[in-house]
Amino acid sequence: MYTVTQRVILVVVLLLAAACDHVDEITPRKYVGLVVGHTGQLKIEIAKSLMTSPGKPVPQAGTLQLPPSPGLEAMKFDFGWVTTAGAIVIQNTKFAVVVLQEPTFDQGKVTWSCVVHPVEAKPKLCGSNYQNGLLQTK
C-alpha cells in the first residue's frame, strides 16, 4: 500500500506537526501593537487632563502603571514613564523596542503621534488617524 519512502515521509510529517507549537509568536511589531492597545484607556485619561487643564502637568505623570485588561495578562515592560506633558515612554529589552506615544493639544483636540525604535517594529495603527478617531469618540 505505502512504500517505505512514503511511510518515512508520513512519520516525519506527523512528528513535525506534533512538535510544532501552535501559539502565535509575539514579534516586536506585535508587541508594539499590544502596547498601543493596552495604553488606550490611559491615553483617553491623559487627553481629558490636557483638555481640562491646558499647559499644566498631567496627573498621570510618573511611573507607568497599566492595569491588566479583562481577560488579558498585564503588559510587561522594563521601563515605563508618563511625562508631565502626557507622553508615554515604554522600553522592552526582550523585544528590543522603545515606544514613545506623544499627545499634541491643538484647537481643542488631542492627537497622538507614535515613534518606535526600531522603525520596522511600528505597526500601522500606531499614531494613525484611525486610532486618533477612536480615542476622540471616548
What's the helix and strand layout?
Blueprint: H1 4-19, H2 28-38, H3 40-52, E1 62-63, E2 79-82, E3 88-92, E4 97-106, E5 109-117, H4 129-136
Antiparallel strand pairs: 1-2, 2-3, 3-4, 4-5
Describe this structure in words.
This protein is an alpha+beta fold and 138 residues long. 35% of the residues lie in helices and 22% in strands. The chain is built from 4 helices and 5 strands. The chain has helices at residues 4-19, 28-38, 40-52, 129-136; strands spanning 62-63, 79-82, 88-92, 97-106, 109-117. It has a 5-stranded antiparallel sheet.
Short description:
This protein has 138 residues and is of the alpha+beta class. The chain has helices spanning 4-19, 28-38, 40-52, 129-136, and strands at 62-63, 79-82, 88-92, 97-106, 109-117. It starts with a helix and ends with a helix.
Uncertain runs are none
Distance between the termini: 65 Å
Helix content: 25-40%
Number of helices: 4
Radius of gyration, in angstroms, nearest whole number: 21 Å
Which series of helices and strands comes N to C?
A: HHHEEEEEH
Oligomer: single chain
Shape: elongated
Number-wise, the strands total 5
Question: What is the average per-residue confidence, as pLDDT, rounded to a whole number?
Answer: 83
* Side-by-side strand order of the widest sheet: 1-2-3-4-5
Biggest sheet architecture = 5 strands, antiparallel
Strand residue percentage = 15-25%
Q: How does the helix and strand content classify structurally?
A: alpha+beta
